[in-house]
Amino acid sequence: KKAGFFSALDFADLIKSFRADGLSEFVAENLVTVAGGQASHRVSYAYFTAFNNMLDKLPLLEHIFHLSSKDEAQKEITKEEFLYTAQQFAQVTPLEVDILFQLCDLKQQTGHVSVGDFKRLLPRDLPVYRGATKSTEVVREYRQISFGMQLLEYAYRFALSAIGGACGAAFVYPIDLVKTRMQNQRSTSITGELLYKNSWDCFRKVVRREGVLGLYSGLGPQVIGVAPEKAIKLTTNFTLRGKFTEKDGTIPLYGEIIAGGCGGASQVLFTNPLEIVKIRLQVAGEVAGEKVGAIRVCRELGFRGMYKGASACFMRDIPFSAIYFPVYAHMKDFLTGGKEGHAGHYMLAAFIAGVPSAGLLTPADVIKTRMQVKVRSGQTQYNGLVDCARKVYKEEGGRAFWKGAGARVCRSSPQFGMTLMVFEILQNLFNVDFGRGKPRERHLVGSSTPLSPLSSQYIGGLGMAQASFCGVERHLGLVMPRFGVPPPSMLKK
Question: Among 20, 140, 295, 433, fewest CB within 10 Å belongs to which?
Fold first, then answer.
C-alpha cells in the first residue's frame, strides 16, 4: 500500500517464509502476538528490520547474557543490566534488545531474561556464538581482607619463600662457586696465565685441590642469608601482583613487570651483604693456605663495606626479576593450562624463565663480582660502577663481560626452578587463602566446541539484506531480482 507499514499477519508471513527452517517453535507461534496481538495491527519497516536483526544476532545476544550473568545458569538479568553489558558490542541496538525482552515476556511477564528464554528463542541447529565459554571452569573470586589478615598472609608467604630459597641455593651452590671463580679470573695477573680454561676445568681443579667440600665453600652464610633474600623477593612480587590483579583474576603485563622489578629491588637489602661475603669465601680457596671465615670477612668489611657494589646489584636484580617473574607466570599458565600443575610444570617453567633473565644480565653480574671481590696484589682496583665497566672493557675486551654466562644460566635457572617448585608445592599443600576466596568450579551454559565458519546468513549483514528485500517486492509492488529469488513457499501464494 506504499505506506511503509505491514499488517501483523503479513509480518508473520514474511518472517516465516524467509526463515522457514530458522525459527524456533515458540517464535513462529508468537509472531502475530509480538507484532501487536491482532492480525490487522500495523508493523513499521524499522521494526521488521530490527526483528530480523535480532534473530540474526541471537547467538551474540546469548553470549552477552552469559557475560552479564557471569555464567551463572540460574541468574535472571534485567534490561538495564543487559544494555550495560551490550555497550561492548556496537552491532547491538537498543531496539533489538527491546524486541528480545518483548519476546521473553510473552511466556511470563517478569521484565527479566534467563537461560530458559534463550532455549525457547534459539533454533536447535543455530550455532553458538564464538565467544561462548567452556561448560566447566575453575575460577577464583578475589576479596578484600583485613589488615591483620594481610600481615598473616605476608608472614605465611615469607616462610614458604624462605624454605624454597634455601632449598634452591643448596641445590646449585657448586655451580655458583664455579661461576664466581670464572668471573673473578683476570688475564692481567702477575703471571699473565689463566688459572681456569673454562667452567669444567674450574670444577675439576676445585675438586682436585680442595676436595668435594671445596665446592660448598661459603654455603653456610648463603643458606642463612638466602632465606630472607628470596622470601622478601617472592613476597614483594606476589603481594604487588595481588594489588594489580583485576576482579576477573587477570594481571596486566605492566603490573607483572612492575611487581617483578620491585621484588628484585627489595632483595638487595639482603642480597648485597650476602653475596659479598659469599664471593670472598668462594675465591679464598684459589690462594694456597688462605683460611677465611664469614665472621672475619664481616669484620674486615664493616657495615658500609657490606654494601659495596650495591649499585651493580640493583642494575642486575631489578631487570632480572622484571623479566623473570612475568615469563615464569605465563610459562606456568601455558604448561598447566591455567589449572593446578605438578612439580615438573613448576620446575620447567622456572627453568625456562631463568635462561633469558640470567643470560642477558651476565655483564651486570660480572661488574658486581669484580667490585665485591677482595683485590689481590697486581690486580686492578675499581672505583665505582662506571670505572669498573670502563677498565674491564679496556683491559680485557667486551668478551670479559660474558665470562661465566653459561655457569650463571646453569645456576640461576635450576636454582629458581627448585625455589619456585618448593614454594608452589608448599602453597598447594597447605592451600591457605586467608579469606580471599578459594578456587571453585563454576558450571557454565554454552558450548566449548569452536564454531565452524558461519553460514552466509550471518555474515556482514547479508541476512538482514535478504530479510529486507526477499519477498517484499510482492507485497509492495517492487521487483528486485538482484537481491535473490523469493522462496518457493512465497511463489505458491
Answer: 295
What backbone phi and psi angles, to 5 degrees, belong to 42?
-90, 140
Cα 381 to Cα 373: distance, rounded to the nearest angstrom: 10
Over residues 61-111, the pLDDT tens digits come to: 888 888 888 767 678 888 888 888 888 777 788 888 888 888 888 887 888
Beta strands 112-113 and 440-443 are unpaired
Distance between CA atoms of 291 and 269, rounded to whole angstroms? 27
Q: How many CB atoms lie within 10 A of CB 123?
A: 16
In Å, what is the CA distance from 441 to each residue of 23, 42, 387?
Answer: 34, 50, 58
Confidence of residue 318 (pLDDT cuts 50, 70, 90): very high
Look at residues 343, 364, 487 and name the one whose alpha carbon lies nearest to residue 427.
Answer: 343
Q: Which three cell numbers stand for residue 311?
A: 649499585
pTM: 0.49
Residues 6+ apart with CB under 8 A from 87: none
Partnered with residue 440 across adjacent β-strands are: 139
Q: Which of 93, 53, 52, 97 lies closest to 78 in space, CA to CA?
A: 97
Residue 289 or 205, more confident = 205
Report CA-CA distances (Å) from 293 to 207, 300, 374: 20, 11, 14
